[in-house]
Write a structure and sequence with these properties.
The protein has 242 residues and is of the alpha/beta class. The protein is built from seven helices and ten strands. The strands form two sheets. The chain has a six-stranded mixed beta sheet with strand order 6-7-8-4-9-10, with helices on both faces. It has a four-stranded mixed beta sheet with strand order 1-5-2-3, covered by helices on one side. The two termini are 28 Å apart. Bound molecules: adenosine-5'-diphosphate and magnesium ion (MG).
Length: 242
């Protein structure tokens, strides 16, 4: 593997990623998966469960160096990562969890973030006192507080009820429009991907690769049911041709 120097865009080319199984076999998880994102673009990786999405994000984040290929991060490469589970330190308050990850964040930055995410009145609670929805908000605040150059989101709204997930999506869209950041969102929810992303990358079953790329026209406004149906039909068409 190699991690190329700073570029304006995120450029991912994972030629091969495999795991050794307990029985001694080799599990090929990713093969020939390549895509890039322009600075400030929001990309969504949409693929079936178990196809290798979390594995890919860990590679991009530099948490797993054991692969063949290359990853070039945008600009300074400061990274915000929202993991599939919120992963908060249970013995620290909500505010301490965020400050630990972003010691350089100003009070004004944190106050604005907590305000947008509806966390002001919860600053001094411990993670055990938070609902899953609140814990996911804290995980978002923690990732954004570092003012990342690249934001990685691993199914950040999974297992929330529809209304709450929709509200959090809107909050995320607002935050990203406020301070554009190159963002890669992993989801298996096509509507979520359409609602948030500029570009969809449809992934195959494992070993994962990009089956099709679907640009989503801006502005990223609330789409009508008819617009959504058209986009869904286009995506279904690409998947059936793949
Ligand atoms: N550390 C690991 N060791 C062995 N197999 C793994 C490991 N991590 C993930 N896998 C396997 O790799 C495949 C892809 O996993 P993952 O990236 O978590 O999928 P996704 O996030 O798309 O649901 C799965 O079959 C999973 O069991
Ligand atoms: Mg996953």
């Amino acid at each position: 593997m190699s991690r190329a120097g700073a570029l304006k865009r995120l450029k991912v080319d994972v030629r091969q990623k495999s795991f050794q199984s307990a029985s001694g076999g080799t599990l090929h998880v990713i093969r020939g998966l390549a895509f890039s994102l322009q600075s400030g673009e929001v990309g969504a990786l949409v693929g079936p469960s178990g196809c290798g999405k979390t594995t890919l994000l860990r590679i991009i984040a530099g948490l797993d160096p054991d692969y063949e290929g290359s990853v070039a991060l945008p600009d300074h490469g400061r990274l915000g990562f929202v993991f599939q589970e919120p992963r908060l330190l249970p013995w620290r308050t909500l505010e301490q969890n965020v400050r630990l990850a972003a010691p350089g964040a100003s009070d004004a930055t944190l106050t604005a973030l907590f305000h947008t995410l509806g966390l002001e009145t919860h600053r001094n609670l411990f993670p055990g006192e938070l609902s899953l929805g609140l814990a996911r908000r804290v995980a978002l605040a923690r990732a954004l507080a570092v003012e990342p150059d690249l934001l990685l989101l691993d199914e950040p709204f999974v297992s929330l009820d529809d209304a709450l997930a929709a509200r959090l999506r809107e909050e995320l869209a607002e935050l990203v429009s406020f301070r554009p950041v190159t963002t890669l969102l992993v989801t298996h929810n096509i509507d979520e991907a359409i609602g948030l992303a500029d570009r969809l990358f449809l992934l195959s079953e494992s070993p994962a690769h990009v089956l099709a790329e679907v640009p989503i026209p801006r502005p990223r406004v609330k789409r009508s049911a008819a617009d959504l149906a058209t986009l869904r039909a286009e995506i279904a068409g690409k998947l059936s041709q793949a």
